[in-house]
Structures are given as structure tokens and as C-alpha cells.
Amino acid sequence: MDIEQLLRTWAPNLYAYRDRFLTSLSATGEMFLKAGLIAFVVGMLFGIILVVTRRGGIRENLLLYQAANLVVNVFRSIPFIILLIFLIPLTRKVVGTAIGVKGAILPLVFGTVPFYTRQVEVALSSVDEGKIEAARSMGSGTLGLIFRVYLHEAVPELVRVTTVTAISLIGLTTMAGAVGAGGIGSFAINYGQNQNHQDIVNVCVVVLLVLVFLLQSLGNLLAKRTTNRGLITRKHRRDGGVKERKA
Q: pLDDT-derived band of residue 173, with 50, 70 and 90 as boundaries?
């Protein structure tokens, strides 16, 4: 039995709206990729700022720290569905519309950045202070400490928190679809729930589960690879040191 026959048998309503379903999948992917890329860059930047400028940080600046911390706390405290409505005027001014995929990107960024910022802050804060001090004693400047110590040492943890954030973003895209952004969430409500087509709802749920599973599996694989790389590097350094002492 081919896929077309399988859909006709088990999901006849989905088959009838298959073109719109594929369009919804494409819209979800577009929202996820565009909002995710922006949120990754902005959230990483804010996370670095919070770690670097905190009390006792490598470039302590409590005024900047408090400002960034306040912005993150404010937007993190607002439920996403309320944030969508709150940002409608700003979204219209920035992109010209508050509906569709185009109108969903900005709210998705505002909803994701605070969460990801906190995740990055925790990941970078776990870096051994001894390594930071050692690099500083060897003359590393602020950028050197950020890229060669903080980000380099925290790669496995950053992969894990990025995976968690990506999965969270999938949920936000479906929520945005409920208020006119399009995507799988909008398709499940408009063509599934509102028209009493349970097969459409079921397939949308399965698709979301598959997406989350793939993201989690990819994140676990990358985290394992980067962790093993770090262990191998440290082992080689130790072995090299032992050989030098023996020589």
C-alpha cells in the first residue's frame, strides 16, 4: 500500500486538504528557521552580556547587566499568547502586518530570546573559573576569553540548551498559528477541530511528535560528539604531558 492509498484509508480528510497541509508544513518550517536563527544570535548575545558583565565577571558592568537582566525578565514573564497580542502594533510598524508567517516572526523572536538567554547564561556560567583565570593570566583579552574559553568549553551544554529551545520554539509556532500566523497549528484548528475532522488533528499531532523527536535526537547526537571531542582533547593533552615528562 503506497502513501496515497494509506492517506485515503486512514486520513481521508487530510488527503482532501493535502495541498493546504503541505503549505502549512512549509509555513511552520519558515517560522521555525527564521525566528530560530534570529533568536539564536540575539539570545546568545544577551547570554554572553549577562555572564561577562555580572558582578565578578571578566568585564563587570552592573549598569549594563541590570538593564539586560530587566529586559529578559520582563519579556520572559509575559505569557506568549498575551505577548502576541501586545506586540501587534509593533509588528505592524516593523513588517507591515500582524498576521501570517511574516507577522509571526517578531513575536516568536520576543518569545524565544528571553528563554534562550537564560539557558545560555546557565551554560556559560558552568565553565570552570580556573580555566578563565589561566587564560587571563596568559594575556587573553575579553574577546579571547569569550570565544576561546567560555564558548569553546561550553559547547556541549550550549548544544543541549539550544535543542531545548528549538523544541520550545516548535510549540510557540503552533500557538502562533492559533491566532492567524498559519502553520500546523492553524491547520489543525481550522481544518481539524473547527470542521470536526479528527484525522487531521491526529496527523498534525504525529507530525509535531516526529519533529520534536528528530530535534531531540539530533541534539543528543551533537552533544555526545562535542563532549567526546572535549574528553579526547584533554586526554591527548595529558598523554602529551606525560610523554614530555618521561623524555
A: very high
How many angstroms separate the CA atoms of 153 and 148, rounded? 8
CA distance 158 to 124: 8
Output the 3-class SS for the chain.
Answer: CCHHHHHHHHCHHHHHCHHHHHHHHHHHHHHHHHHHHHHHHHHHHHHHHHHHHCCCCCCCCHHHHHHHHHHHHHHHHCCHHHHHHHCHHHHHHHHCCCCHHHHHHHHHHHHHHHHHHHHHHHHHHCCCHHHHHHHHHCCCCHHHHHHHHHHHHCHHHHHHHHHHHHHHHHHHHHHHHHHHHCHHHHHHHHHHHCCCCHHHHHHHHHHHHHHHHHHHHHHHHHHHHHHHHHHHHHHHHHHHHHHHHHC
User: How far is residue 26's CA from residue 169's CA, in Å, rounded to a whole number?
Assistant: 15
Q: Taking the CA atoms of the chain, what radius of gyration do you get in angstroms?
A: 23
Q: What is the pTM of this model?
A: 0.88
pLDDT of 243 higher than 60: no
The distance from CA 211 to its chain's CA centroid, rounded to whole angstroms, is 14
- The mean per-residue pLDDT over the stretch 79-88 comes to 91
**Is 34 buried (19+), middle (13-18) or exposed (0-12) by CB count in 10 A?**
middle
Q: Is residue 233's pLDDT more than 60?
A: no
Inter-residue contact 103 to 111 (CB < 8 Å): no
Tens of pLDDT along 39-76?
999 999 999 999 999 999 999 999 999 999 999 999 99
Give the pLDDT band (50/70/90) at residue 86: very high
The label of the residue with cell 523572536 reads 109
